[in-house]
Amino acid sequence: MVRKSDLYKVDGDKLERKNQICPRCGEGVFMADHGDRVACGKCGYTEMKK
Fold this sequence. Notes:
By secondary structure, the chain is mainly β. The chain has no helices and 5 strands. Strands 3-4-5 form a 3-stranded antiparallel sheet, with no helix packed on it. Strands 1-2 form a two-stranded antiparallel ribbon. The protein starts with 7 loop residues before the first strand and ends with a strand. The model has no long low-confidence stretch (mean pLDDT about 90). Keywords: Metal-binding, Ribonucleoprotein, Ribosomal protein, Zinc, Zinc-finger. InterPro entries: Ribosomal_eS31, Ribosomal_eS31_arc, Ribosomal_zn-bd.
């Protein structure tokens, strides 16, 4: 299980998101990395990696 704190990187006073954000759902919905693809668990949007 992934904790929410694992999805962000804190660099000084900046907060950086580690995972890609779903283009359909928008901010706050991360896409899961499955090795050969990234997928949104909310809407099902999937992108294949090159």
